[in-house]
């Protein structure tokens, strides 16, 4: 009986997805920058689908032609074929038949199995021929030994459920400002020509992450969007964050004080990815946000590729990697960086250094929520920066020493290159409304700090501008006031243009609010 029901549920899910021929939302922006050639699915106006559950998008991406997939409402990544929303224990239970050994996996037990002191206590109990914590010590030792192996097996079950592969020539577009992929890992592997627009994107929380160091450094899987050897990808008007509400997700606390960070990146790109534009997005309240370059092991495939335009985004409460950059060309133009900064300056500020604060027992901010830096200049990156806006609160609001971080700067024959396009006639970036007199000097000071600390070598990061931008941006924003106004009005999800007109007309006929407020309403819902 149970099997019949399951079969019917599966059959219901497999009902052919039908093409949608009604009016579709009209969004404002066009692709530009390094992904300016991307057309997504827009070249085929007949292949349009509207999806609203976890099964339908999988069906739609399988079509072997250019297509546009509109997301209507919230799709839950953990929605099983029978409709239930899986919890972590379900991924364990679903792996292999009932009674399988792998069901002996338990996350707390796994953490204990990594603790050499704890394991030696169990081994002592075996030697003493006594039970351990009321269990047969020999059997318990065996169970501990299997935990990491089991972890990999049950993790594969979660991955199959929450991972979602896109195919060539696809547009994935939120129908309106309610559209969300909640707990989905969009995976773009060796694909070309993708649009991802107008969506709230919440990455899956990894049920089975591996700790790196006690208590708070973890290796979790699942980005909201992950690009591996992908090209021509445009991400616009999206909101990337830990959960639907936008609030930061506190780590789980597990004895004796583990702070389990179940998140990886929001937008991580690697392995020879190329021609990407990340524009008009909001990146909120996250720890490690944009990783552009997977590391030295990928250098050969990255060098000469990895071209990114990062324009018009609002990074709000993003603690690090906004972005982290390796082996490519990165244009960081007209973004707003808003954050709390309680870290004392790393250098160059005697007045504030005196007020150095220790993280006391009363400061309960989890370690991974603490602001670290905005722009990570790593191995052989070529970074261009022009008029960004920094808004800060917290104990050290005006500190510029963490705008940049320098890392892997060890090769002076192949230096990272930073170009600050802020000398007149260009306008400067601002910090809390005040012009940063010389962002080039900030870069130079940051490099000196890292060289002095022994973390970088002289000449491995140079300030130089070779070449020009080479493409048009949607709006030339000269001064930081324009940038702030533009980003606050353009970044994040939107109503479509046609509905915007209706909303504007409604509000003005009511005489209550201006069009600007009506737009704001659409944006923030
Ligand atoms: C466009 O989509 C239709 C399905 O609606 C498909 O049959 C056709 O092959 C596609 N055309 C191209 C040029 O990809
Ligand atoms: C994607 O589009 C390109 C260019 O239009 C075309 O050459 C290619 O065959 C398409 N691929 C698929 C899978 O439709
Ligand atoms: C989107 O979902 C809503 C609520 O289920 C439904 O009323 C509406 O018709 C859907 N829109 C489209 C285009 O399918
Ligand atoms: C749905 O499927 C999961 C996984 O197979 C199972 O554990 C759960 O009991 C099912 N729920 C219902 C209501 O059938
Ligand atoms: C490791 O186990 C010992 C003994 O049970 C315990 O005192 C210690 O807190 C544990 N450490 C960690 C990091 O779990
Ligand atoms: C503990 O388990 C082992 C292996 O199953 C078994 O050989 C041993 O007799 C058990 N010890 C006790 C005290 O039950
Ligand atoms: C998708 O596009 C890439 C790059 O153009 C190409 O190498 C790959 O074969 C395409 N995949 C399919 C399934 O057509
Ligand atoms: C990226 O765009 C440039 C310029 O259009 C082009 O030469 C290059 O081949 C593209 N890269 C990939 C991987 O398609
Ligand atoms: C930035 O985030 C904070 C905290 O989530 C919020 O209070 C603030 O309104 C956001 N800024 C803007 C401009 O929306
Ligand atoms: C930050 O700079 C602003 C503008 O110059 C100034 O009013 C404010 O007092 C400064 N805050 C601190 C804590 O130094
Ligand atoms: C930097 O990249 C080069 C490859 O070009 C590699 O050999 C070197 O180890 C990298 N340095 C670091 C610190 O990762």
From TrEMBL:
Keywords: Carbohydrate metabolism, Lyase, Polysaccharide degradation, Secreted, Signal. It comes from the Eukaryota. One of its GO terms (cellular component) is extracellular region. It is found in: Secreted. Residues 506-525 are annotated as: Disordered. GO terms for molecular function: pectate lyase activity. It holds the Pfam family Pectate_lyase_4. GO terms for biological process: polysaccharide catabolic process. Residues 1-16 form the signal peptide. Residues 115-353 form the Pectate lyase domain. The keyword Lyase applies. InterPro entries: Pec_lyase (IPR002022), Pectin_lyas_fold (IPR012334), Pectin_lyase_fold/virulence (IPR011050), PEL (IPR045032). Belongs to the polysaccharide lyase 1 family. PANTHER family: PECTATE LYASE 18-RELATED, PECTATE LYASE 21-RELATED. This is Polysaccharide lyase family 1 protein. It comes from Pleurotus eryngii.
């Amino acid at each position: 009986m149970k099997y019949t029901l399951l079969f019917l549920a599966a059959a219901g899910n497999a009902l052919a997805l039908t093409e949608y021929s009604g009016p579709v939302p009209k969004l404002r922006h066009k692709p530009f920058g390094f992904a300016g050639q991307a057309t997504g699915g827009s070249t085929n106006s007949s292949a349009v689908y509207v999806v609203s559950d976890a099964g339908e998008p999988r069906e739609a991406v399988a079509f072997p032609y250019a297509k546009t997939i509109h997301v209507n409402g919230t799709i839950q990544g953990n929605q099983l074929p029978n409709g239930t929303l899986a919890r972590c224990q379900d991924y364990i239970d679903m792996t292999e038949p009932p009674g399988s050994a792998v069901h002996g996996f338990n996350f707390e037990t796994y953490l204990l199995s990594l603790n050499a002191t704890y394991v030696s206590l169990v081994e002592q109990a075996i030697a003493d021929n006594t039970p351990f914590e009321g269990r047969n010590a020999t059997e318990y030792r065996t169970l501990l030994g299997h935990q990491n192996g089991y972890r990999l097996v049950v993790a594969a079950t979660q991955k199959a459920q929450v991972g979602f592969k896109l195919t060539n020539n696809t547009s994935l577009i939120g129908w309106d400002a309610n559209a969300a992929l909640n707990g989905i890992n969009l995976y773009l592997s060796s694909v070309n020509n993708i649009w991802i627009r107008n969506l709230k994107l919440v990455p899956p929380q990894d049920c089975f992450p591996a700790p790196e160091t006690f208590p708070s450094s973890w290796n979790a899987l699942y980005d909201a969007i992950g690009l591996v050897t992908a090209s021509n990808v445009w991400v616009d008007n999206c909101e990337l964050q830990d959960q639907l509400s936008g609030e930061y997700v506190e780590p789980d606390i597990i004895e004796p004080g583990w702070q389990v960070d179940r998140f990886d990146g929001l937008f991580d790109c690697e392995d020879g990815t190329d021609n990407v534009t990340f524009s008009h997005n909001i990146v909120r309240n996250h720890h490690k946000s944009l990783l552009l370059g997977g590391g030295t092991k990928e250098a050969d495939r990255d060098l000469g590729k990895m071209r990114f335009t990062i324009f018009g985004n609002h990074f709000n409460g993003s603690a690090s990697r906004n972005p982290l950059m390796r082996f490519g060309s990165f244009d960081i133009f007209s973004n707003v960086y808003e954050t709390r900064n309680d870290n004392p300056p790393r250098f160059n500020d005697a007045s504030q250094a005196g007020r150095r604060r220790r993280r006391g027992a009363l400061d309960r901010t989890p370690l991974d929520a603490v602001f670290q830096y905005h722009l990570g200049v790593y191995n052989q990156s070529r970074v261009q920066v022009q008029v960004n806006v920094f808004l800060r609160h917290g104990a050290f609001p005006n500190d510029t020493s963490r705008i940049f971080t320098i890392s892997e700067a060890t090769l002076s024959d192949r230096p990272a290159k930073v170009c600050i396009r802020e000398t007149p006639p260009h306008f400067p970036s601002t910090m809390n409304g005040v012009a940063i007199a010389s962002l080039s000097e900030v870069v130079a000071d940051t490099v000196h700090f890292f060289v002095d600390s022994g973390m970088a070598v002289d000449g491995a990061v140079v300030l130089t501008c070779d070449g020009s931008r080479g493409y048009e941006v949607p709006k030339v924003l000269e001064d930081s006031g324009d940038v702030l106004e533009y980003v606050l009005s353009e970044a994040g999800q939107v109503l479509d243009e046609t509905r915007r007109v209706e909303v504007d007309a409604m509000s003005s006929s009511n005489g209550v609010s201006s069009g600007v407020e009506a737009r704001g309403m659409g944006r923030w819902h």
